[in-house]
Amino acid sequence: MPTAPYSEHEIRDAALAHCEALRAAWGEAVPARLLRRFPCRGEWINLYAQQGVFKPKQLSDTALSLRTTLGSRYQDEVHVDGNTIDYDYAPSDHQNAYVKRAADQNLPLIYLVQVKAKPDPEYMVASPVFVTGWNDRTRKFQVRFEPIAQAAGQVSESNLIEQRYGLRVMRARLHQAHFRREVLAAYRNRCSICELRVRPLLDGAHITPDSADGEPIIQNGLAMCASHHRAFDRKILRVTEDYTVEVDRDQVSAQDRAGKTTLLDHHGQPICLPKDEAQWPDRERLAAV
Ligand SMILES: [Zn+2]
């Protein structure tokens, strides 16, 4: 039975749903291999390609995604400036016209920020975002979390609150993504407690709360698997100033065999530390927990 051709809105909605599902499952570090294409009525459509601005061939003339890669010449950093994120675009990129058309129509876009380099790159996904303006001289798009229709004319207080909230969340997510990358690199991709090396199960755990605006401080971090991170945050497990594991034994029953291997067996053991002593956890922060 022939099916009706799908609309451009349907493609955009499918892309946004794909991103939302991956973000819910993977947080700030979505593997590129899962992200790169999305299903739409049985067809696989690309979400991004080599260049920073991307329009899949199934869309006629509006962009779908913007991408910032680590170490690329024009887009090596995310600039959160005032109420917008500035996206630097390449001078010869004819794809920029696709972004301007999407902006004119208030279409939601997907913003991808690379947070881990090859091999197995990872991305932080921000969606939906809207391009609400640009400057061809400085070659910057202004990226916001609300469409221009609400930003232009009468700007309501709730729009402003939403925009500020969106940026604050974005800053915190970026910080977390960079923190995790740096901490996991320092600990050579293993849990500092049990040495588990399954990267999707590893977190950058903060020892004490960090300012989302500041640079990630590796000495305020410990690489931990999901179980040990939770146990650390809930004070079932702590790390002493001399880098020894301490477990609150009252929390684990004597009959719990998994509790023994996951927790009790680590009690009194030294943690696994980074090779570089300058990256070892801050003893004062550990004492303060
Ligand atoms: Zn662990």
Topology of helices and strands:
Blueprint: H1 8-26, E1 30-31, H2 32-35, E2 37-40, E3 43-46, E4 53-54, E5 65-68, E6 79-81, E7 84-88, H3 96-104, E8 109-116, E9 122-135, E10 140-144, H4 148-151, H5 157-186, E11 202-206, E12 221-225, H6 226-233, E13 237-239, E14 245-247, H7 257-262, H8 283-288
Parallel strand pairs: 5-8
Antiparallel strand pairs: 1-9, 2-3, 4-5, 6-7, 7-10, 8-9, 9-10, 11-12, 13-14
The chain binds zinc ion (ZN).
- Look at the structure and give the CATH class of the largest domain: Mainly Beta
Rg of Cα set: 22 Å
Major sheet summary line: 8 strands, mixed
CATH topology of the largest domain: PUA domain-like
User: Quick check: average pLDDT?
Assistant: 89
- Helix-strand makeup class: alpha+beta
Textual characterization of the structure:
This protein is an alpha+beta fold. It folds into 2 domains: 8-152, PUA domain-like; 189-288, no CATH class. It has helices spanning 8-26, 32-35, 96-104, 148-151, 157-186, 226-233, 257-262, 283-288; strands at residues 30-31, 37-40, 43-46, 53-54, 65-68, 79-81, 84-88, 109-116, 122-135, 140-144, 202-206, 221-225, 237-239, 245-247. The strands form 4 sheets. Strands 1, 4, 5, 6, 7, 8, 9 and 10 form an 8-stranded mixed β-sheet that branches. Strands 2-3 form a two-stranded antiparallel ribbon. A hairpin with a 2-residue loop joins strand 2 and strand 3 (43-46). The longest helix is centred in the middle third of the chain and has 30 residues, at 157-186. Bound molecules: zinc ion. Zinc ion binds next to strand 12 and helix 6.
